[in-house]
Amino acid sequence: MSTHSSHPLSTAARHLSAVDSLTTPIVCTATYTFASSDELRDHFEGRVRRHEYGRYGNPTVRAAEERLAALDGAGDAALFGSGMAAITSALFALSKKGDHVVITADGYRRTRSFVTNLLARFGVEHTVVAAGDAGAVAAAIDARTRVVLAESPTNPYLRVLDLPALAEAKKKFPRAKILIDATFATPENQKPLAQGADLVIHSCTKYLGGHNDLLAGVVSGDAGLVSVVREARDVLGGVLDPHAAYLLLRGLKTLSLRVARQNASALELARWLESQRAVERVYYPGLASHPDHDVAARLMSGFGGVVSFVLRADLEGTARALDQCRLAILAPSLGGVETLIEQPAIMSYYGLAPEERAALGIRDGLVRLSVGVEDVEEIRADLARVIEEVRRGL
Ligand SMILES: Cc1ncc(COP(=O)(O)O)c(C=O)c1O
To answer: What is the mean pLDDT of residues 367-372?
Structure first.
């Protein structure tokens, strides 16, 4: 094991490299052994740092947590078995009966449903405000507020929150914590902790894993606050499997390469889509036409790999158009190396009545494109097939 202080492997990874493995070993165990009762006492008295039981920690998972904390510029990070496990555990950890949570309207449907249905059953009240409007978010905070949870950029309209403005306005309520779900941004494009967030959450299922082969979620931030969330995880049990932690560590090795390419291709495709008559509107924070372009340009170093757009077509016409794709794959999720395309009205919002979808702002012709790492010209050629199908119906 190297003792060099600037060793490129994290502390946890170095502990694991006793066999000189370049890659982080997968420690596949549910429990850890103690040589004697004295060793057990040393552990519980905090005289040694070691693992005890799989739900409380795993060396492979710990190596990934250290890597993620470094990427977010955080004191610590806690990994979970999915993005939703991270979000729900953080909210359970930070709120109790009689408290109040503020969330934004545009956002992942399951996050909203957790706050408005499940958390509400435990007596935690909530206010839902328009996404991207820092003033409205700040105005919804009161003395009972413990958590302000906002995605930035949001799913699917890519609204970007003026985080420094919100953090400034929130100073009057120091007990309220700002949680930013930065799944769409990734630590490559934005560092919310340096801009006023108390905790950052990512669904690592998306860009951080990057290959559509794992589910994971992470909460990072100040070590004290992360330990409160970790304690909730240890009880709720939404832990990450060490095999998935290994895949996540592997994915992270190419994060900056993938995101740089996805940023560049998405911007190019967004501009091209905006020039097409069959496209009514494009939502991409890198375009001057996006309502939050100025905020995004100030806070983000890249605008991400997701482009949302509305086709001049009805529900069936849009579905037919997407069926013309040969490269982009019809699938939920985003952020992986493969380009994925979906029509939210019949994917994430399937089963909702047209009026219910309309109330949530989900248009029939809305398309969400997650740009992969393929040749941008090949993706454009695929989108041209979608556009051609819409044009035929105009
Ligand atoms: C912004 C955002 N946050 C959280 C989640 C949930 O993550 P997971 O699917 O890893 O539970 C998603 C899933 O699509 C998402 O888009």
So the answer is: 98
**What pLDDT digit, counting tens, does each position of 104-162 carry?**
998 899 999 999 999 999 999 999 999 888 999 999 999 999 999 999 999 999 999 99
> Which of the four pLDDT bands, split at 50, 70 and 90, describes residue 196?
very high
The string of DSSP letters for 78-122 reads EEESSHHHHHHHHHHHH--TT-EEEEESSS-HHHHHIIIIIIHHT
Which of 235, 223, 208 lies closest to 64 in space, CA to CA? 208
Domain, as residue range, for 272: 256-393
Is the domain of 267 the same as that of 246? no
Are 367 and 227 members of one domain? no
pTM comes to 0.95
**Nearest residue to 184 (alpha-carbon basis) of 158, 217, 213:** 158
**Using a 6 Å cutoff on CB, does residue 83 contact ligand 1?**
yes
Residue numbers annotated as active site? 55, 108, 181, 206
Cβ 215 under 6 angstroms from ligand 1: yes
Cα–Cα distance for residue pair 335/265, rounded to 1 Å: 13
Q: Do 271 and 369 have their domain in common?
A: yes
pLDDT in tens, 76-99: 999 999 999 999 999 999 999 999
Burial class (CB in 10 A: 0-12, 13-18, 19+), 148: buried
Same domain, 357 and 269: yes
Cross-strand partners of 203 = 217
Final residue in a domain of this structure, among 199, 233, 252: 252
C-alpha 2 to ligand 1 mean position (Å): 38
Measured from the Cα of 333, ligand 1's closest atom is 14
211 and 269 part of one domain: no
Q: Would you say the CB of residue 238 lies under 6 angstroms from ligand 1?
A: no
Interval between CA 375 and ligand 1 midpoint (Å): 26
Of 252, 277, 308, the position where a domain reaches its end is 252
For residue 279, the domain's CATH number is: 3.90.1150.10
In this structure, the answer to whether residues 238 and 303 fall within a common structural domain is no
Q: Are residues 150 and 16 in the same domain?
A: yes
